[in-house]
């Protein structure tokens, strides 16, 4: 696809998706980019290329179908994604952990996206004050050719099933896990229960896409649940 600027010079835009490539109507398409553009002859296209890259990343994430993981981009900027993790087994079973994923403005040529749990989770790799997960250990240098946002989210899910205590951000959690596993499990249980007790608290964010939970109401949620179950039966029956 070619486009002429005011001087008549043609500029080549990224190619459109080919047959077989999935394009979803994600919240990213309705967001106006507010990030700064790079310098150079293609400066005006910087926000366009960034949004194109993030839409591709969101499509890749959808295709992975990661169990217990739900993510939606912010209504204000595609550089901020809201997410929630449901832990279904192991020490952190029944955990419902909300998080924010912040993507650098120079993505995919910058640093690794930053993932922060809100509120902080009691875990050796999670900063007990800020809630930030140490993702740099696995993604020490972001490589645009091989690294993707879904891999960061998969890593965030995996740390609750394969606990690493080397060079911890939460030394208390690491020490208890290594030397007093029973006490560690008690602290984790207290953390999980505390978060669940405040699950229905009003959301602090004014973003329309921020994830919020509400108590079950049959008149509101009943039909949705039935629709999900019916779709699931159709998927299973069609295989």
Features:
alpha+beta, two-stranded antiparallel ribbon, 239 residues, single chain, 5 helices
Can you describe what's shown?
Helix content is 31%, strand content 12%. The protein has 239 residues and is α+β, with helices and mostly antiparallel strands. Strands 3-4-5-6 form a four-stranded antiparallel beta sheet. A two-stranded antiparallel ribbon has the order 1-2. The longest helix is centred in the C-terminal third of the chain and has 20 residues, at 218-237. The chain is globular.
Main sheet specs: 4 strands, antiparallel
Structural class: alpha+beta
What is the oligomer described by this structure? single chain
Record the strand order, biggest sheet: 3-4-5-6
Mass-distribution shape: globular
Given as residue ranges, the uncertain stretches (5+ residues, pLDDT < 50) are 1-45
Number of helices: 5
Mean pLDDT: 82
- What is the count of β-strands? 6
Taking Cα atoms only, what radius of gyration do you get, to the nearest Å?
A: 21 Å
SSE string, helices as H and strands as E: EEHEEEEHHHH
**Terminal Cα span:** 39 Å
Helix content: 25-40%
What topology emerges from the helices and strands here?
Layout: E1 2-4, E2 10-12, H1 46-64, E3 69-73, E4 80-86, E5 96-102, E6 114-117, H2 149-158, H3 171-179, H4 181-197, H5 218-237
Antiparallel strand pairs: 1-2, 3-4, 4-5, 5-6
Tell me briefly what this model is.
Residues 49-197 form the UBC core domain. The chain is α+β, with helices and mostly antiparallel strands and 239 residues long.
